[in-house]
């Protein structure tokens, strides 16, 4: 990954390989993704590993709220053999309303996990935790903001698989 100066919500890099952006001068690591003839990444997705898989499958992707169905959920506790600490991970597979988009996500460093059932979620979202500077283990907040079917914090997210299917 290359370090860039973050200045706006969207990052573009055209054919001349210059980064175009505007606004606050903090540094972030982003993986530049190919979208048409320019590179594109939304700032709020910049720290999610594997987003290139999502954009390859769904180039117009911009909102996690399109996912309404939890198709698969696996929770595991992995013991670090060197430190003895327990690491909580969740793998979640989601589909949109018409079953044309499916994504499999890995959440690492999971805490405060809550789930009301495997029913549909009304407003699935992944958001940066505004207070994560205080607790690095809670960098992301995963929530169903409409029906509260699922919510938890995690340290890291990775898109394992993403696909668009013809239905």
Short description:
The protein is mainly β and 167 residues long.
Structure report:
By secondary structure, this protein is mainly beta. It is 4% helix and 51% strand. The chain contains one helix and 14 strands; from the N terminus they run ββββββαββββββββ. The chain has a four-stranded antiparallel beta sheet with strand order 3-2-6-5, covered by helices on one side. A four-stranded antiparallel beta sheet has the order 7-8-9-14. Strands 10-13-12-11 form a four-stranded antiparallel beta sheet, with no helix packed on it. Strand 12 (140-144) and strand 13 form a beta hairpin. It is globular, with a radius of gyration of 17 Å. It starts with a strand and ends with a strand.
* Helical content (DSSP H or I, runs of 4+): under 10%
Radius of gyration: 17 Å
Number of strands: 14
Helical stretch tally: 1
Mean pLDDT level: 76
The termini sit apart by 36 Å
- Spans of at least 5 consecutive residues whose pLDDT stays below 50 are 1-40
Portion in beta strands: over 45%
Structural class: mainly beta
> Which sequence of strands runs across the widest sheet?
3-2-6-5
List SSEs in N-to-C order: EEEEEEHEEEEEEEE
The major β-sheet equals: 4 strands, antiparallel
Backbone shape: globular
Distinctive features:
167 residues, mainly beta, four-stranded antiparallel sheet, 14 strands, 51% strand
Spell out the blueprint of helices and strands.
Elements: E1 2-6, E2 10-13, E3 19-20, E4 26-30, E5 33-35, E6 38-42, H1 51-57, E7 67-79, E8 86-96, E9 101-108, E10 111-115, E11 124-128, E12 140-144, E13 150-154, E14 156-164
């Amino acid at each position: 990954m290359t370090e860039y100066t973050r200045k706006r919500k969207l990052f573009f890099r055209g054919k001349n390989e210059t980064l175009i952006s505007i606004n606050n001068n903090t540094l972030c690591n982003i993986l530049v993704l190919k979208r048409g003839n320019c590179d594109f990444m939304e700032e709020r997705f910049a720290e999610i590993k594997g987003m290139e898989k999502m954009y390859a499958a769904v180039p117009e992707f911009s909102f996690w709220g399109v996912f309404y169905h939890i198709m698969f959920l696996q929770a595991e506790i992995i013991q670090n053999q060197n430190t003895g600490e327990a690491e909580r991970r969740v793998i979640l597979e989601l589909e949109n309303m018409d079953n044309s988009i499916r994504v499999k996500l890995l959440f690492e460093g999971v805490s405060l996990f809550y789930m009301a059932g495997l029913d549909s979620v009304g407003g699935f979202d992944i958001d940066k935790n505004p207070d994560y500077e205080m607790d690095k283990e809670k960098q992301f907040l995963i929530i169903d903001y409409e029906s509260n079917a699922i919510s938890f914090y995690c340290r890291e997210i990775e898109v394992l698989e993403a696909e668009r299917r013809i239905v």
